[in-house]
What we know:
By secondary structure, the protein is mainly β.
Amino acid sequence: MNIFTSVNDxxxxxxxxxxxxxxxxxxxxxDGREVQLGIIEAKPTSLTLSVDGRVMFYEFYxxxxxxxSLVHNNQFYKVVLRNRQQDQLEQLLEEFGAxxxxxATDTRxxxxxxxxxxxxSIKEGEKIELGRVVLVLEAMKMENEISSTVEGxxxxxxxxxxxxxxxxxxxxxTAPL
Length: 177
C-alpha cells in the first residue's frame, strides 16, 4: 500500500507491505529507505511500535475521524496521511454529495467497516458534533475510534457493546439541531 504522508509540511512517500512470516510486522520503504515495523500494542489513541528493533511510542489525535497530529518523544507533529484510493473515493463521494462530513441531510452514522463494538461513548438525547468519537469498533485485531460524520441530537443507538456490524450498518441515528 502506498501512502503519501506530510509531517510538519514535509512530504514523504511511504510504501508498506505485510511481512508474511510474522504477524503484525511490516516493511515500510520511506523515500527509498527500508524500515522494519512491528505493532507491539495498538490502542484507540496510541501505538507502540518496534521500528528497526527500537521500541517507540506514539500518541495521535484525530480530526473528523482522521489522524491530524501525533506526539513522539514529547514533540508535536502535524500529520496528513493520504493514499491514492482514498483520494479517488473522496472525490467520487464529493461528486455525489456525500463527502467527508456528509451532507446537511445526513442523520445516520454507518459502520465504515465490519467489526465488533467494543465501547459506546454517547447516550440517547445527547448532542454530538462532527468529528466526535462516538464508539470503538474492533476490526482486524485493531481498535478503531469511530467519529461522528453528522451533527445533531442522538435519537437512537442501534448497536450495543459486543454486537457485530458489517460495512454500512446503521449504528446511530440523529436528528438535526
